[in-house]
Amino acid sequence: MNEGKDKDKIVPSTPNSLDMRKRGLVRRGLQDLSRSEPRRKRILISHEEAVNEVLEGELRSAGYETKVASHSSQVLELVEAFWPDVVLIQLIAEVDALKLSEQLARGFPRVKIVILGRIVGAELKVKQYLQKKGITCSFLELPFDRKEQLLDVLESQFG
Amino acid sequence: MSGDLGFRPKPEEEELKLKKQELQGLETKLVELELQLVGLRGEMSAFERLYLKRVGILYAELDEIEAQISELLARHDPGNLKAQGAAKEARARAEESRSGAGELAVGETRRFAPPPALKSLYREVARRIHPDLAVNEADRAKRQRLMAQANQAYENGDEGKLRAILEEYETSPEAVLGEGMGVDLVRVIRKIAQVKRRLAEIDTEMQQVMASELFELKKKVDEGARQGRDVLNEMASATQSQIGVRQSELKRVREHGKK
Fold first, then answer.
1. What is the CATH number of the domain that holds A84?
2. How far apart are CA B230 and CA B241, in angstroms?
3. Is residue A21 part of a domain?
4. Residue A121 domain boundaries
5. Contact check, Cβ <8 Å, B141/A1
6. Which residue of A has its CA nearest to B201?
7. Is the ipTM of this complex over 0.95?
């Protein structure tokens, strides 16, 4: 306000003037609370932009935490940073998807893989190839009719 | 027509009129924001009391037991510097928690829910006595004192006190305004500047409150309530379980000298 008048100003007590002790108890409560909250499942989506926007919206509204990799080359880096529970790989070029699945299975065996495929008849081929390598994955054909199909596949990953 | 006859308002009159309109708009906004701020403060301090009474006090109890365990262990092993240090730390923490939770936890924990009539009265009081609408320094000092009392009365839901404050100001000499166009114009311009500064201050304070950990905690508690959960009760139960575990430990240490 006026210069030199601030010291005279009557300021009622506010939450910001909480002394450190009370603040410490509040912080402790918050920390305990976050520890007790179940972590939301995280989904990493790779990598077709138009589909990603729809998928991300659906997954978020279903309560998942999501991240999108703009290219398959970004997926491994994001897995390290985001620690997803599931990676959704969109099958555009078979080779890319297979290579990525192998890398994921090798480097991050905890992460579940769901392959979304647009290529007709690719499902069996992809599954057989990955099975041979000892990699398990789920498959969902794009475009799916109902978002529930996607959510069912995801929920089945968490037992 | 009258303008042609020389009755057109003088430029300073027009300017004064415009400035008064601007000030009126700002004053209304200021009163609303002061009301919001005092309401937010009231809510936060009621929540703080409730939290400390239901959860904070249990943290203090838990810390006290942990301090006693550490002190007993240290007593059993006087040569163990690590144990001595841990006991001192645990005692300091217990003291901090006790003083943080103790004083307020035994106080009243009513919810802050001012009725509409009290809000209207507060608006009226703020409109009349807000310090940033002062005409001189003496007036400002008086308004500051009364405004602080009004904020406190509002937080306490004390309608009688608010009315008394309004009456006190209305009958004071500072409530009488000066005169003269030039003086008025300067006064109005200064008031506009004061009100704008106060609006910025209110905004900053509200941002600070909303960025605080207490606000974050309250948000979680409120979210839980919307889902039918009593989050404070859950926190209290979890802490009580910890207290139970530590009490058993304390008993073991008392009996056997170790956990």
1. 3.40.50.2300
2. 17
3. no
4. 42-157
5. no
6. A1
7. no
